[in-house]
Queue: 3 jobs
Job 1
Amino acid sequence: MGKVVAVLAAATLAALASTTAHAQQKLVVAGYGGSFEDIMRQDIFPAFGKQHGVELEYVAGNSTNTVARLQAQKSNQQIDVAIIDDGPMYQAIALGFCAPIQGLPKDDLYKTALYKDDKAVALGIVATGIMYNKKFFEEKKWAPPTSWDDLKDPKYKQLLVIPPLNNTYGLHALVQYAREGGGSEKNVDAGFKTFKDKVGPNVLVYEPSPGKMTELFSSGQAVIGVWGSGRAKAFADTGFPVGFVYPREGAYALLSSVCPIAKDKPNPAAQAFIKYLMTPEVQTKLGSSYGYGPVNKKAQTKDNPDVPMPIGERAAKLIVLDWDTVNKNRDDWNKRWTREIER
């Protein structure tokens, strides 16, 4: 009888150990939704999960949503790895949410990809520019857009879509119009005025959702918009007649970035996953599937004529925001945007 009890006790302990081990094998990654989520789930997660014996869970949301989640969960972080845009990433680092990345292969990475104290690293380079429906433009015999000024053209009335200000693409547009009017990140009044008087009348909707954005184009409700090269490339890969333009005044740089979340008991798989994302193989996959300009020098890149990738000279010419100034003022700008633009 004693042997039976001992065997049962051993089996119970083994089951508990197995359950605990299983619980530790889950890695929670927060990142963008839409086509980016599809690529992560289908092309990136499976190989890592198999190699490390890890079950990956994905929490989709835009960058400001993810930072808000980190703030809400700060006493008990559920997220292990966060993938967010460079601006909100600086906020996340300042708020103490990011832990240093161990053993980054810095010699293989472009310097642009690196953050101070290795608290984050860029995952890919995106250009914010103008996306349009090539087929619609050809049928109308309209010339492709070439300038940020084109978005003011009355022929685009109710055909233009721009993400709102809490999205990096919308923020880039506001700063561009501020600069055009003689201002800058330090004085965005001219940007608000241009949106209110000249761009806003053309806007069908200020759309934050990537899925909804592609729906608006697919249904023909929208034919031109401000968006990122990565999103535009993924949309073009579905067969939609996408054109993407780097405006002559300059396209804006967005560094899609990743950091391990600081915790009392950090998930060891978080560090391994970030290093996996930096490998030439994954960087090549993110370039070919999503249109990211790779941050690893050894990644293979193949350009797309409809949606040119932010590589080489194009990447070098991208405009970078003064994020210190932006992040100090962004909450006030968001309130002003709601009050004056999206009423």
Job 2
Amino acid sequence: MLGISIYLSENIEEIKKYIDRSGKYGVKNIFTSMHITEENSQEFMNKIQEVSKYANERNMSLMIDISTNTLSKFNLTFSEMIEFYKNIGIKKLRIDFGFSEKEIYEISKYFEIILNASTIDEKYCNSLEKAGLNLNKITVCHNFYPRIETGISEEFLLEKNKLFKKKGFKVQAFIPGDEKLRGPMFEGLPTLEDHRNIPTFLAYIELMENYLVDEVLIGDVSAKEETFERIFDYYKNKRIELKLENVNIPTEEIEKHFWKEHKNRKDFSKYVVRSTSSRVEINTEIDPFNTIERKAGSITIDNKLYGRYNGEIQITMVNLKQDDRVNVLGKIKSEEVALLKYIKDDMKFVLKK
């Protein structure tokens, strides 16, 4: 579903608050790293034990990114590293680089293994299996890219994920946050470059719907509570919340049904999202008003000139011409229009101011 990232250079109390906030919305996995250069080693060792304990008490777990640099950075032998993680209650390790297939197999005896997706090809898969690893029990996690213009393309992500699925891996990828971004670049931490400047909720849906991703991780320091609420609602209830602007609802009866939960038709259109219930529930004839051009994202209601379609609420997915039979009630915010294509057969949606 959804995971978060924490960075031990941040204030420990703020980290705990973020863990608590995200935990309310089903987050179980918490990514952090033990080989990035910014972290102070002794302070990090103290903090990671405290945070691991805090997360485990809330039925959440740290997923620690390690490499062979971790051993030298923290002055640990391979065996000492394993014992350290076991003692502080770590259950998942993301292996970045430097460890042999035999060492990864040894680590897998004690921890769930997550591999860096950028290191994996057909040859490496064969080597892992020869070393005794069961690929069906391994997750692969794509990188995030702090520098702008360095994130991977949609085509590359899908091509790699098809290979991973064929081999039996589960797949993770990153999206940027929308509250506090992580330095030193403060440019977002996405896997896909095209996700760098789009809403976090949209980036989540796109990864889950289009790219064979099993779990999405927010790469930045934090995301807004509203974003967690929308993602949780989408995941649990298969419902998309749409934010509106410039709404003008002329009658109480229309307003009564406008703010209810809607559902798109099973035989969905590529031009409009159609509420299945509104024209059945709205019984009075609706007079024509505001029958203007329908820009993409317009929320409309058919008036009495449309006969039996009177009362049907729609959202336009593309620009449509003016029609005397169709009243425009308002529009969804421009950054929300891209969500409409994910409201497919029987998908629920709600409209919010």
Job 3
Amino acid sequence: MTNTASPARHFAGDRLVIASHNKGKIPEIAALLEGRVARLTSAAEHDVPEPEETGDTFIANAELKARFVAEATGLPSLADDSGVSVTGLGGDPGIYSARWAEKPPSESNGGSGRDFAYAMEQVRLKLGDTPDRSARFVCALSLCWPDGHCETVEGEIRGQLVWPARGTKGFGYDPIFVPDGHDRTFGEMESAEKHAMSHRADAFRKLVARCFES
């Protein structure tokens, strides 16, 4: 990761590739960047495959993805890696947050995809009687250039896990996460309220201040 104590490289271009095949990320990131980049495209639009995420931290995986796409396209690339870290589980599921939602073949009934109701139940079962229900959502953002230089930041929001799950908004682990200072889960909040305080918003504030403001 680039040392955030050193002078940052300013983003001065008008094209940025989002290192993802998720079309929904383009408008979300455009809103978070507040029009600072004229043209955003996805890795899929450049026929760049998603690399295997072999890092052992959120930051390592974000940098791996951004650097891979920047090298493949010859354009600056932005990648994120995020998940939930549960104190009582030693930080799990962490970088494996999405993987925890994949049911084993014996329980999938031939289906595919991710089931976060299953993932949340795994968290509850593994915690058992552990009294510590504290957790944090983490988002690492990495902006990499084709020459290999990366600027990377990490945002987070802390809170408590609750059961049963509450709310149908949001996605992933949102229905069991109550941010500190609030009494509703992310799953019960409207998207604008959640995004104003989320780990992703925290990370983007840091990245914008570091690389997009004079």
